[in-house]
Amino acid sequence: MQIGAFVFNAMAVDVSVDETTGKSRVNRAWSACDVGRAINPKMVEGQIEGAFVQGMGFALFEELVWHGPQISNPTLMDYKIPTFIEAPPELYSIIVESDDPTGPFGAKSVGEIGINGVAAAITNAVNRCTGARLRALPLTSERVLTGMLNAEGVR
Fold first, then answer.
1. pLDDT per residue over 78-94, tens digit each?
2. Structural domains counted in the chain
3. What are the strands of the beta sheet with 24-36, ordered from one edge?
4. Among 37, 61, 82, 114, which is 20 to 30 Å from 141 by CA?
5. Does 150 map to a domain?
6. Is residue 78 within 8 Å of 72, Cβ to Cβ?
7. Chain segment 45-62, per-residue pLDDT in tens
8. Phi-psi region of 79 (alpha: psi -120 to 50; beta: other; left: phi over 0)
9. Which domain holds residue 29?
């Protein structure tokens, strides 16, 4: 008896980094998810796209700022999340179908798997673009600029 299903995701991102400010932007992204059977392909695409943008927020914008035991940015006025403007202009959702006899009608999950690799893909792309080796999220402009300046000192 099989319990659960194995799901897979592969992604690639194209980023640009402003060398003066350190601001990073995702220009294009491809996210391919193994979803078993896509019962409603448009909904699956929406899940993949939404997961990517949410993961992009984690990678580039979202950070809780603490002042002692208190959160300094408790509202959406202070806590930055991505909006339509920050979303990549080209976001390609690739549905990969496979057979999963344990899922309903052969379907697997899609909402969870689409977010898992986003931060790693964006961080790797920014590192490759800048020559930095950033290891802390989010990749704020300050962190990226500091990483670029440190990487230049090493070369």
1. 888 899 999 999 999 99
2. 1
3. 9-17, 24-36, 90-97
4. 114
5. no
6. yes
7. 999 999 999 999 999 998
8. beta
9. 9-143
In a domain, 152, yes or no: no
The structure tokens listed for 24 are 């990073």
Give CA–CA dist 72/152, Å, rounded: 33
- Name the DSSP letter for residue 73: -
Q: What is residue 60's three-state secondary structure? A: helix
* CATH number of the domain residue 27 falls in: 3.30.365.10
Q: For residue 138, how far is the Cα from the chain centroid?
A: 11
> Positive or negative CA dihedral for 128, 132, 136, 138?
negative
Residues of the chain with confidence (pLDDT) below 50: 155
In this prediction the pTM is: 0.89
Bridge partners (DSSP) listed for residue 97: 36
**Single-letter amino acid, residue 132:** A
